Amino acid sequence: MTSHDVRALLEPVRRLHELIRAAVVEACERASLEELSEVERDGEGDTIYAVDRVGEELLVEFFEREVASRTPLVLIAEGLEGGRVVLPRGASEDEAVWRVVVDPVDGTRALMYQKRSAWVLTGVAPNRGPSTTLRDIELAVQTEIPLVKQHLYDSLWTVRGEGARAERLNRLTGERTALTLRPSRARTIAHGFAQVARFFPGARDLLAAIDEEVVRGALGPARPGKAHCFEDQYLSSGGQLYELMAGHDRFVADLRPLMRRALSARGLALGICCHPYDLCTELIAREAGVVVTDPSSGGPLSAPLGVEAEVAWAGYANEHIRRQIEPLLRSALGARGLL
């Protein structure tokens, strides 16, 4: 498949994102916090809340009507039975041209409590069967779902090899303004935001210890009364990528899948982790100049496009930050037997 082929999906995917964004914001405006945070289904991969269903209900109908009538595809999303569906109905998976992975609401928890924006995420890859991975994605689109009190929101997209593009939209007037993505050019995490994600109970002590070791190795001990770097636990993988692209963050690592062995030794189970659909727009970050890696290998992310795989990842604003942090991160993981 060529970039010209996949480019035809950009406009419909962006329209889908607008539909989901509008529907979710409307639901947040009219429903109570208790209604939005009601657990609809507690699946193996993640918990599905009422606000998630708003976005999921649009997916199949939209792709069936707008795309699959011309081009067969495999739609992959957490809320679908078995995690995927072949469209149009009756087509075989082998006939599909594309594998389309979607997270209709990435950052559900913060959004339903109206703490922070969530994101609609979509990645499109040529159908290479079950062996299709994040590395195969050729088109990615990421759209902000703003808080009710917020009238501006951002939309980002890329076609592989063509760089990242973005615009800021006014949901009240419809005005669109081009937005330039500028990852930080700083050569150090000093006086910047840099963090190891530790959103949920279970391994937070281990993750915090790794974070502390990396920061001390990079910057030395904190001076009395001073803070030499800061952290932001943005409970959204798409949101974390956005913060790197926007120049707000310099380093982020989500290491949760690597904690399994250590937790097992404590007699504890590994909780919720990042999945491929959470990272299906990492191509935009890379096209913008962000370095995104598998912390176990230092190579690119290569998880299969599905809903089951657990994905660890690290993002660096630039190669200078990577050179400062990656050796320290791998040393901290290796010393704990986590590589």
Structure write-up:
The structure is a single chain. By secondary structure, the chain is an alpha+beta fold. The chain folds into two domains: 177 residues, 2-Layer Sandwich (Fructose-1,6-Bisphosphatase, Chain A, domain 1), CATH 3.30.540.10; 143 residues, D-Maltodextrin-Binding Protein, domain 2 (3-Layer(aba) Sandwich), CATH 3.40.190. Helix content is 32%, strand content 22%. Strand 8 and strand 9 form a beta hairpin. The mean pLDDT is 93.
Helix coverage percent of residues? 25-40%
Q: What do we call the CATH topology of the largest domain?
A: Fructose-1,6-Bisphosphatase, Chain A, domain 1
Structural class by secondary-structure content: alpha+beta
User: What is the strand content?
Assistant: 15-25%
Largest sheet: 8 strands, mixed
* Mean of residue pLDDT values: 93
Total discrete domains: 2
CATH homologous superfamily (4th level) name of the largest domain: Fructose-1,6-Bisphosphatase, subunit A, domain 1
Strand order of the largest sheet: 4-3-5-6-7-8-9-10
What is the 3D shape? globular
End-to-end C-alpha gap? 35 Å
Descriptive tags:
14 strands; D-Maltodextrin-Binding Protein, domain 2; single chain; alpha+beta; 339 residues; 2 domains
